[in-house]
Design goal:
By secondary structure, the protein is of the alpha+beta class. Strands 8, 9, 10, 11, 12 and 13 form a 6-stranded antiparallel beta sheet that branches. It has a 4-stranded antiparallel beta sheet with strand order 4-7-5-6, covered by helices on one side. Bound molecules: adenosine-5'-diphosphate and magnesium ion (MG).
Length: 371
Amino acid sequence: MGVPLNLKAEALTSTPSRNGAHPEGDIGERLKRAAFAGPYRIALLVNLARNAPPVYRPIVPPDLWAELDSDKNVAAYARALEEAGHEVLIQEGNAHLAAWLEDHRPDLCFNTCEGFGGDSREAQVPALLEMIGARYSGPAPLAAAITQDKPTTKRILHFYGLPTPPFQVFETADDDLDPQLAFPLFVKPAHEGTGMGVHNESVVHNERQLRDRVAWCVEAYQQPALVETYIEGRDITCGLVGNGNAVHIFPITEVDFSGYPPELLPIYGSLQKIDYDHLYRNKCPAPLSEKLAQAVRRLTHQTFLITGCRDFARVDFRLDAQDRLFILEINGLPGIAPRSDLTLMAQAEGWTHGDLVRAVLGAALLRYGMA
Ligand SMILES: Nc1ncnc2c1ncn2[C@@H]1O[C@H](COP(=O)(O)OP(=O)(O)O)[C@@H](O)[C@H]1O
Ligand SMILES: [Mg+2]
């Protein structure tokens, strides 16, 4: 375990400095500047909540479309791209996309499509783009599918010896419980995001609660449940833009749970992320020792590399009372809406929302040799 196969030793041992001190200069500034190459015709690919298909199931959880975008967010992405001089065409990332691309022939697609369903929903648009040879920002299908599925990500982390909570995947509520897993445990859908299916009841203290919650999770989200050791502690997240070793890492963020209703456990679930979004407070930069901050940045970068992500990503952690870090997941297509975590961390160091969107575009343009 822990043998860094296929990874440059440098990538596993180096810790990119916070401000991108790199032989090629400040990476963040370089990415932002690269967005002004061209001008290009950019297809802004989106999945709007108002275009979500109807759902015919007995349980339809209220957060089912939590990942999908609003017209307001889409207008903000478009504005950021237009400010760099590009022509922007907005298009829904659906089954008509291939024909639309044939008609409009953009130079590059700026992909924000979370997908409407399926165990690799974020991989669907990249797969189509790859099939027709279009250039696009964000992860390719394999990385999108890997990072969409938390158990698959965790198996890869485990292979490389990176810390993640012990876990078991439950296909049904009747699966045998691995005797090595000790309560309290945490139950969440295997391949969702934005706190979907994460509530107080995700923390289970006995087998009856576990099986009830797994049953609900499987039924409501039509997918396996990921059961992990519950890590009591702090919620930490760290984001980056760029590629390979030329990445810019944003200030680390800690969720501040003190502003939420007291009956809510300190977990960043769907109530906190959606219903009580207006109560959200964070600490950015998170109050961490330099040693821990370095470890968070190193693990973020390593997770980005081993999962094959591109252009941007955000890695979520829990930090326990003994200062042990556990990687929960990597978001290969993290939210970049004006109020998303990644935006807030970029703003904490003086970037605008437009700067962040353009840095992602710049990373993609540099990757394709277009800037
Ligand atoms: N094993 C765990 N122990 C403690 N809290 C957890 C665990 N897994 C998830 N959480 C809580 O649930 C939140 C959402 O989990 P995460 O895996 O990041 O899924 P999502 O894709 O919904 O963001 C985390 O930010 C954390 O607060
Ligand atoms: Mg998360």
